[in-house]
# Entry
Amino acid sequence: MAVNVQVILREDVPKLGKTGEIVRVRRGFARNYLVPQALGVLATRGNVRQVEHEKVSALARASKLRKDAETRRTEIEGLSIEVSKQAGEEGKLFGSVTTKEIAELLETHGQKVDRRTILLDSPIRELGDHEIKIKLAPDVLANFKIRVVEQRAQ
# Structure
């Protein structure tokens, strides 16, 4: 005779539910797995109130982050960056322009961006204009152009 209990999930649990949801599970599963692994807490009145408060706080933080990201997007999309590299025949670069280099170039223009947020399928290996995407927030992408020109011999 298994008795079910209600648990508030603290993290996403595959095939069970998402963070903040109240789910009904067997008492042993809650006692032996969910609670010790900090994946959930028993759904008492106090815990439910606390989770609701955390949801409101998280929504406010997410809203502020999105607003800041929107502001940064307009600043970044106004940029047009030029970088010079040595190139061989047919416009092929000796080396490449990487996300690290792009992040450094953006920083010289007053935009500090983590290189891991720069979405580049592969490093840039050709001369010309290239469209770069940066993920500023989960649902905010900024696009800007980078022009790779041939470095002049000195």
Remarks:
- Strands lie at 4-9, 22-26, 40-42, 80-85, 92-97, 118-119, 124-126, 128-137, 140-150.
- The mean pLDDT is 89.
- The chain is about 35% helix and 35% strand.
- The two ends are 85 Å apart (CA to CA).
